[in-house]
Amino acid sequence: MNEVIVEKVALRNIPISSKKVEPVLELIRGHNLLYALEELKLVNKKAARFIYKLLKSAVANIEHNRRMDPSKMKILRIWVTKGPKLKRYRFAAKGRIRPYQKYRSNIYAEIGYGT
Known about the structure:
Blueprint: E1 4-14, H1 18-28, H2 33-42, H3 46-64, E2 74-82, E3 86-91, E4 97-102, E5 105-113
Antiparallel strand pairs: 1-5, 2-5, 3-4
C-alpha cells in the first residue's frame, strides 16, 4: 500500500453525535477529494454540511499552503470520534430535575496520494 499523506485536517466540537456522522463518512471514504465534495452536496443530512466544510478547508490548504493540485488528491482516511458532552437539566414533575446530555463529535481526515 503506497500512500503519501499531504494534508491532515480536523473539525472539533461539532454539535452532532458521532453516530449520525458515521453513515455519511461511509459514502465518501476512499474517494477522490473533489468527487467527494460534489457527492456531499447531494446528501440531505446535517452531518454532510460539516464534512463538506472540513473537506473544503482541506482543498484550500492544499492549494494555498502546499501549492498542489487538489484534483489528484484522495481521501486516505476519514474518521469521527466522540467529543465532550454538554450536561443539561430539564425540569420534571414534583419539583425534580432530569439530566440529559448533548453529544458532540470530532471529525479528522488525511488527504493525499494513494493507490
